[in-house]
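Project channel, design review

CF: Before we commit to the Gordonia phthalatica constructs, I'd like one complete example in the thread so the newer folks can see what an input/output pair looks like. Taking Membrane protein.
RD: sounds good, go ahead.
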Amino acid sequence: MTAADRTLRRRDHLVIVAVALLISFLQRPGRISPDTKLDLTADPIGFLTRAAHLWSPDAPMGQVQNQAYGYFFPHGFFFAVGDVLNLPPWITQRLWWAILLAAGFIGVVRLAEALRIGSFWSRLIAAWVFVLAPRVMTTLGTISSETLPMMLAPWVLLPVVRALDDDRDDRPLWLGAAQSACAIALMGAVNAVATAAAVAVAALWWLMILIRGVDRRSTLVFGGWWTLGAAAACLWWVVPLLILSRISPPFLDFIESAAVTTEWTSLTEVLRGTDSWTPFVSPERAVGAVLVSEPAAVVATGVLAAAGLAGLAMRAMPHRRRLLILLVVGLLAICLGYPGALGSPLRDTVVAFLDGPGAALRNIHKFDPLVRLPLALGVAHLLARVRIPARTGPARRAHAERGFAAALVVVIAAFGSGSLLWTGGLAPAQSYRDIPDYWTQTADWLHDAQRDAPAPTRALVVPGAPFADQLWGLTRDEPLQALAQTPWAVRDAIPLTPPGAIRAMDSVQRALSSGRGSPGLAAALAEQGVGYLVLRADLDPSSRSARPLAVAQAIARSPGLSEAAQFGPMVAPPTVDGVVVDDGLRPKLPAITIYRVDGAAAGPTLVDAAAMPRVSGGPEALLSVEDSRRRAGLPPLGPALLAADAARAGLSPSSPLIVTDSPVDREVDFGRVDDHSSAIRSADDPRLTKNRVPDYPVDGQPSVRAQWLLDNQPGQVRVTSSGSAADATQPGRTLPASSTAAAFDNDGETAWASRGLESAVGQWLAVEFTQPRSDLAVTVTTAKALGPDVTSVLISTDTGSTVAQGLKPGVPTRILAPAGPTHRVEVRAIATADGSGGNQFAVADLAFSDANTGVPLAIRQRIVLPTLDAADGVGGWELGPELGQRSDCVTGPGGRVRCSPALGLSSETPGVFNRTLSVPTETTVAPTVTLRPVPGGELEALLARPGAIRAEGRSSVADPLGNASAAVDGDPNTTWVAPDPGSAGTKHRPALTMTLPQAREISGLRLQTPSDYPARPTRVTVDLRDGGRRVGSTTVTVGDDGVVHFPARRADTVVITVTKHSDLININALGFAEDGPVGVSEVQVLPGPPNPQFDDARPVQIRCDSDPTGPYGLGITASGQVHRLQVTTTAGALRRGEPVVATACPGPPLTLAAGEQELSVNPGLAFTVDAVSLPVSGAPVASAPVTHPRVDRWDATRRAVTVDAADADRVLVVPESTNPGWHARVDGRELTTVVVNGWQQGWLIPAGTAGTVALTFDLDSPYRWALGLGLALMAVLFAVVLLARLVPALGRGASTRRSAGVSQRLDQRGVVIASAAAGLLSAYLLTGPWGAALAAATGIVVWRLPARRRPVLPFATMLAATAVLAAGPWHGGAAYTGYGIWAQSFALIAVASAAASSLFSRER
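CF: and here is what came back for Membrane protein:
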């Protein structure tokens, strides 16, 4: 038997399975990989039980289970069997991987045998190439549900080939169709598109046979049986999928966009197999990240692609035209959205389609089997045709040697590409051994705490995180997802709830992550159905989540939240001596702390429809309204109706309308949960994010938008920029105070800043006038930013440009713009102080004036609320910056204060707060303004203590709990933190200047420092001064007790300069190591007592008679009226950054005239506006008391409550996400749906209605029937195939076997012309007109080449494309060459030459 005739035997199968097992068990043995879904390893049976229902009340906020049904078979079934057999989850997982690898390997070999492609050994190598393709290695350890369909694609195609192409097979057509359908069934439906893409290989093959015309009757008969078999295989998941499509929230709008999924789909990347976008953006896919960034990996995979194309170009390759058609179709499916050089002319259309109607197809890399299978078979054929050099003539031997060398390179590349397998790289490094017991204890406690509740409240896990990445390992899914027995929720990156629910959760997330807390938080949580907060401290710092320490402080500062339980040990990121993490902001905390929410009641509620408050705004505004009510001493708001939802339901509550400044027009980075929103946008601002929608929408509610004014006139000017740190596309967290508005607010403390981590040179800020302007003078004031200062700018207009040099931060520079009328003036950075490109360009102020008269052009931005209807009865306005200020400091356990600039964040409106209101009728309001202290000199003046030591010095933060004053405040829990050594530079050593109330004798100091962070001074220089005259200077080592001694001198000033400090490495929030700063908690002057403690109770007043133009001139302006504000608070509240309520001074009321009215609040220099409440004088206070109906039944999809009759219409509220699948009926009569709180279920119960209200998720029954009958039908399919195998007579049947047909002889010239035209059209669709021309030229070259040399061209040009890409792979240290024209051109030539080789059969 020759190598070409040898086929796989049973013992070969055993060897393959053994190798697959070895490979799988080498991947981090003993650890569970975060593969596909946590439930499969944590509780597969419980998961499948829950998946039997379409709706899950326990899932976050209540939601439909997105494609959970797809796990029933085979994925979930396999893991359930492992669970029943008590196999450790990691072993079950590795067995699963081994089965996938073995199935794919054997399938490719069997397919090659049926197609008569290659030899025994070349088929094995081809199978190795297929199962270790980049897509497989990228997905197997993290999302094997996508690997499964690809591994079974050969098995779907194999029966088609045997039935219609292989004369050796005598099985009836129906059996082949049924076998193929079984392979389809085994693909499951975790991802329906991946399954369909894998089946497309066989479907296209069948279609090509049908078109070819070989015994079309048999082909059609097979197609009929195949369709029936596929229906039996897929009915169990197709029907649930169709049901789901009717009721699922539009979550596809909020995940990766088509612009991202198509970003790296060049021909070179796709041919070598790196067509998935995830390795390019996620280092978690460790193997994939190596394959896209390492030149060696690029070369190995590129060589294999070149070999596959060369094999397909060989004239002896069986079925090469069909295989090439599959390849080209695959390239068309994947590459049409490529944005680089020689990209498709349909790019924009394709991206729009994938973000719109074709959103389900957005992850186009799932079509990889169409490309990978032909290339693998091409490798099999190429290697089989290689001759081993023998003792023949020199010319023939040289030719054989060259072929053998090329084949050897291919074999080495094949095994080299899979070398990462032997290092255990398929499983992520964050794989874990087990979920810690404290998570199970938490789930059990939550269940026990509500064991007797008919409808338990929800537990909200905080802080939210895009994915669950813990110190002990990455699960991706939340641990409670698999463990919880009661409702729970978390704000993660892929919420499968309505947009309104996400916005409501975001308001809570902001309140907690800021560390500020909220007076109305408990009431808002109770209204959301949240009865418990689960604070976790085991998140990894790299999880892009809020710091648990800040969340703990926010909870402590929010009344109505009380600690209920703790579980687990004290946890913190692991460190070693001399190393801290995240500026010391992650101290040890209990792994889990559970807090109880006061006032949270379980189950449904009833509320008077007419009494329900109406709110104009988004769901996120309800927390702000609750805050305002709490400060005013009012009861909680209760269930509320958004104005848009009330109108949609036809309700007209009698309560007056509460107007808020939400929803705000923003862009959002949907992949993050914190600091992911842009600054407020104007109507004509360009879109920067790539998703179809900019933000989670609020249906029917107009947005609050920014508007630019020129001399107080709208529509006259527009401000644009190259980008800002306030954009949602900003790397890291967004800085809302750094938008373009900051350059026009007449506040030198704020500045527009370009996006971080980009070159400062080339960044620009521009003003566009609707009417041309002449003779302009431009005054530019730059500001300090990241990196070296910008020193030169280019001022460009429509008529020319001019350069200004020598700019310094904070110093205005007046520049005359080029003469002549211009519509646009641009300020562009062109040079920095050190001659480098810099990092960031910042402009504190950009002013324009008439160059001749000096008259300024006043440009500013205002925020405009939507217009209200004249009939709207307004009860008040609740306003405020949605993205408020955050402190630099946070208080941890034991009162220890920790400070870092990574914590602080300026408000998006740090200075004067303005809103333009729509006032239906003249209205009198009683304003109340909530202020937040702003660190700075003005706040320090309010905190100054007469007769106490004062301290000054450069600090890393301005907060009084962490600046120089913290070193002398008598509180060892506060610490002065010097600037970061990297930012301070070598010129400035950390220094502290202490000014004593009066001169006295000083002979020593006692320095008290924290034990962990910041670094401890070990050597200092002490300068003593008296009346400005130096009287002594000593450099001394700091003792272990912190005491330094020096000769006694009489002095009134002490300057401490740190010349040496303990070694401390800080791993910052981005994961980079840096030198830690130095700091001191307390400095005690010796001899003398300790510093007196700060008097927190000392009253602080800002009175009505303060200077209105001074730093404390607080006031509110509207309708031409100016009203002064007064503040009474305490020094402790100011020092801690707590909110301060400012009230109107005595005088006439504030009256808002009808129409558009601009409201401005001046908070002075010591405060920023946190909230503005404008209740209408005399308006009734809206509040909706609730009652609790009797719950008779409360299941996942069927519920029943009993209501008594009432004289008024009521709304039945269920604190779960609204969904069109839910229906409520009384005596068979459908109740009207009402959306409550912007996202919750509600139904209108007419007056006089009494009895049982039946709540049913009507689609759950057809869902369950489809699952049950469909799975039964699939079982019948498998039983038939198994019976045919057990009963040989059923597997034979000449009457059903296709008869030997004669191919219809098509006109070969016509076939060639049509094929060439189709090829050129494909080239045009892939690469545009220039690409089509290049493909045509390639075809001419191929036509001129001898047939035996034609495979050399695709091999060589694909190698050239690979070499270009290897010179600049993604994140390889050089510029990425995958976008360039050379790699794309060479890859196009490679594909075109392979395709053309199949058209020209004659030898030349």
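RD: helpful, thanks. Residues 883-912+950-1002+1042-1084 form one domain.
CF: The two ends are 35 Å apart (CA to CA).
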